[in-house]
Amino acid sequence: MEHNLQHTISLLTRTPAALNALLRDLPETWTLRNxxxxxxxxFDVVGHLIDAERTNWIPRARMVLQLGETQAFESFDxxxxxxxxxxxxxxxxxxxxxxxxxxxxxxxxxxxxxxxDLERRGRHPALGVVTLSELLATWxxxxxxxxHQISRVMAHQYREAAGPWSRYxxxxxxxxxxxx
Amino acid sequence: MEHNLQHTISLLTRTPAALNALLRDLPETWTLRNxxxxxxxxFDVVGHLIDAERTNWIPRARMVLQLGETQAFESFDxxxxxxxxxxxxxxxxxxxxxxxxxxxxxxxxxxxxxxxDLERRGRHPALGVVTLSELLATWxxxxxxxxHQISRVMAHQYREAAGPWSRYxxxxxxxxxxxx
Lengths: 180, 180
Prior knowledge:
The structure is a homodimer. The first copy, chain A, is mostly helical. Chain A contains 8 helices and 2 strands; from the N terminus they run αααααααββα. In chain A, strands 1-2 form a two-stranded antiparallel sheet. The longest helix of chain A is centred in the last third of the chain and has 25 residues, at 132-156.
């Protein structure tokens, strides 16, 4: 299936409101607990999404358009969420994510990308040559990977509480699959 | 960790709005496609959540309170989503889910459950003896298992579009874990 930029934008537009509806003012049992040492809570994930808005998608799209394959993207700092979230409340993070996403979608629309632009190529430091189309599709799929993670991290908090039903709940069989 | 009924209600209250924010008016590429034969789309999942509101959680809670362990719950019909969703739009399903959830939470609050009520026992047709507490915690975790599923089914639609990044996206490594 060919990547459809309007479909990507439709999803990217909705993620901040979906996370806001799910997480705002939820008890900290759900939002601040993680899955164990060196894992993320829902709060951490929102910090990571903010970091990616600042440093990943639009900056990389600009690099593809300006530099093509000549220069590799900077590696994404998977610890950047700590910098974004220190001293903030989850409500502040949700607001910040919504604000940045809205700005970035404004920038994306202003680029007025045509099909031939989507085929332009850039260089990922580990993956090698990638297209602008793949980068933008990944932006949307990345939202979904973290919604998937948040639902798993939250469900983990009820593993004991659900008693024997825990073996029927698919989310509780998911060990997480993100690269380290 | 002891099950906290207020935490459960907090989550149950938010799920309809979260799904509404994520799914309403999203292109059908995202909402009507599934993961292959005999799998569910996001649309199907919302139909299933409606079915569970009608036939599972509150009816079973009433059975625990009225009949205890003497009579097993009726088996849950995993095909019930078809009955609920035939001929309807996703918008109609989202409205219906929100309405039923709100009614059911009203019923739950009206039961005015005390700790000793939560310890009351019922009988599941396959799992055997379960407590009311476990049933209600499972209601919340079941929302999360289906949010986890929806994010995975949607991400699957972009498996090709994300190109080489697909190997980095945890959600695309998740094969699903629900019991058949």
